[in-house]
Amino acid sequence: MNDSLRLADIACPPLFPPRHGYLECSRPIDEIADGPNGGSLKITNRPGSQCILKCPTGYRLEGKFSKICGTTGEWIGDENGTCIRYPQPKLQCPTSVNVELHPNETETTTVRLRRPETDVSWERDVQVEPYWVKKDSFALPLGSLNVSYSAKHPVSKLHTECNFLINVLPGSPPRVDFCPDTQVYTIEGRHQSVKATWEEPVFSDNVGVSPGTDFGAGSHLITYEAHDDAEWKSKCVFKIVVNVNPEQQQQPTAQSHFQLPILYNRFYF
Prior knowledge:
Layout: H1 2-8, E1 22-26, E2 50-54, E3 59-62, E4 65-69, E5 75-79, E6 82-85, E7 91-92, E8 97-100, E9 108-112, E10 117-118, H2 122-125, E11 126-129, E12 137-141, E13 143-152, E14 159-169, E15 176-178, E16 183-187, E17 193-195, E18 202-203, E19 214-227, E20 233-244, E21 262-268
Parallel strand pairs: 8-14, 16-20, 19-21
Antiparallel strand pairs: 1-2, 2-4, 3-6, 4-5, 7-10, 9-12, 11-13, 13-14, 15-18, 17-19, 19-20
């Protein structure tokens, strides 16, 4: 009886939650009494009262926060927990997408998009407008289509949006901005070939090829071809002509069995 009376006089001080959080507490039933004349309830943290930290929507608990009021009137337990905000979902849209009609297409073309980068579930948490753009491929006519992606975090409900355009353009081959003229070289001395160099052709979609190959005597046809994603193609064609110094056309001596290879119509792609 004396112990009960003594505990009835013991109470822990008010407990305040960390920023952004709130406390959910449970207390012994008999410690909650009516106020004067049946007025408002007075709640006291008697020994045995327990409080845990809760976080609102958009926040999550990091660490631990669980306290219990002890018989000495002091709170016991962990209190290093805090409520931290969930990050916005990651969603990286592509830049505006330009596609061309293929050579055999006149009205529509098939568009295939890479999925945007995100850290939530593509199937569950990402919405697309128009909805059918979420398919792996779809047909579009000439013109522009505005596409909107929205990603929602499954717990915090925070969301991120991004937009881009799909432009369907009439098909056209790459433009040839520069194509070399015929290159003429002469083999000198006792060499069997000559190193030909040229300024590379330039297309609207530049391609990388390597001049600097050895060519034997003769005429060599050089062909550059550029093509785009819609399979439209353009070519640049020019010749490398390798002549032999007339002084080397004499009959070889007994000490020299040197012969020049004559190569015609060699093609390079």
